[in-house]
C-alpha cells in the first residue's frame, strides 16, 4: 500500500512540482493551500508525512505545525518544512515546533524524495 504525503503550499505550481516528484517515487499525494486548509483536510484522514511551506496566507507553516502537534491523531506525523526561509532562527523555531527536516527552496526533487524516504516509515 502506498504512503500518503500531504503537500501544504500556497503556490499551486509549486505543489504540482512536489506532487510529481513524490508520485514518481510511489507516494500518494494530498494537497492543501495553507495551514487552515490542511487542518480541514486532515480531519479523518491518515497521512504518513507532511511537506509544508512556512510563508502562507490564513495560517503559516509554523502555526500549522504547532497546531498539528496538539492533535492526537497527527501528533507523530513527521513534517518536512520546504521553504525559502533559511535563517537559523526560523529553522530553530521549526525544530522546536516539531519539524523533522528543513529544506530550502529552490530545491532538488531528489533531495526532497530522499528526505521523505528516510522519514516516511
TrEMBL record:
Transmembrane segments: none annotated. InterPro entries: Bact_response_regulator (IPR050595), CheY-like_superfamily (IPR011006), Sig_transdc_resp-reg_receiver (IPR001789). The modification 4-aspartylphosphate is found at residue 53. It comes from the Bacteria. Keywords: Phosphoprotein. Pfam families: Response_reg. It comes from Roseateles paludis. Residues 4-120 form the Response regulatory domain. This is Response regulator.
Amino acid at each position: 500500500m502506498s504512503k500518503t504525503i500531504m503537500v501544504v503550499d500556497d503556490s499551486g505550481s509549486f505543489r504540482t512540482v512536489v506532487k510529481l516528484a513524490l508520485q514518481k517515487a510511489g507516494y500518494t499525494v494530498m494537497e492543501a493551500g495553507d495551514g487552515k486548509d490542511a487542518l480541514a483536510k486532515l480531519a479523518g484522514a491518515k497521512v504518513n508525512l507532511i511537506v509544508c511551506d512556512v510563508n502562507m496566507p490564513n495560517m503559516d507553516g509554523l502555526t500549522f505545525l504547532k497546531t498539528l502537534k496538539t492533535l492526537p491523531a497527527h501528533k507523530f506525523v513527521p513534517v518536512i518544512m520546504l521553504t525559502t526561509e533559511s535563517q537559523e532562527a526560523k529553522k530553530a523555531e521549526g525544530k522546536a515546533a516539531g519539524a523533522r527536516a528543513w529544506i530550502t527552496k529552490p530545491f532538488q526533487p531528489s533531495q526532497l524524495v530522499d528526505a521523505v524516504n528516510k522519514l516516511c516509515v
